[in-house]
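[C-ALPHA CELLS]
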Amino acid sequence: MNRSQAATIHFIRWIARAISIVLFLMFGAFFVEHLSWFFGSGERPPAIVWMLQGVHLLMLAGFLIALKWEAAGSVLIAVSSLIFLSQTAGERFLPLFAITIVPALLFLTCWWKSRGREPSLI
C-alpha cells in the first residue's frame, strides 16, 4: 500500500470514528430516555420491549467496539441495527438503517484495505 492509500484509509477511519461517536450519543440518548420512561411509569413494559432494548444496547456497544475492533464492531452494528430498527422504526426503517450502517461500512472498508498491515496506533 502506498502512502496516498494509507492516508486515505486513515482519513476514512477518522470519519467513521466521528460518525460512530455521534450516532452513539444520539441513540444513547434515546436508550437512556426509554429506560427512564420504563422505570418512571407505574407498569412494566412487555418482555419484547426489554429484548428490543437489549438489542438497542448491543447496537450502542457496536459503535464503541468498532473504534478498536473494526470488523467485529461493524458486524455488531449492522446486525443489531437491522433487528432493532426493523422492529421499532416503522416506515422510517430504511433511512435510519442507511444512516446507522454508514460507520460500519466505512470501518469495514478500512479493515479490508489494511488487512495484514500493522495496526494503526491512532
Summary: The mean pLDDT is 91.
